[in-house]
Amino acid sequence: MLMYTTEVEIAAAAARMVVEEGLEYGPAKRRAIKQLGLAGRAPLPSNDVLEEAVRDYIETFCADTQPAALKALRALACVWMERMAEFNPHLGGAVWRGTATELSDIYLQLFCDDSKSAELKLIDQQVRYDVSTVPGFHGDTVDALSVLCACPGLEQHGAVEKVVVHLMIYDRDDVRGALKPDSQGRPQRGDLQAVKRLLKEDACS
Question: In terms of C-beta distances under 8 Å and separation of at least 24 residues, what long-range contacts does 121-128 make, across chains too?
Answer without folding.
Answer: 121/84, 121/86, 121/87, 122/147, 122/167, 125/83
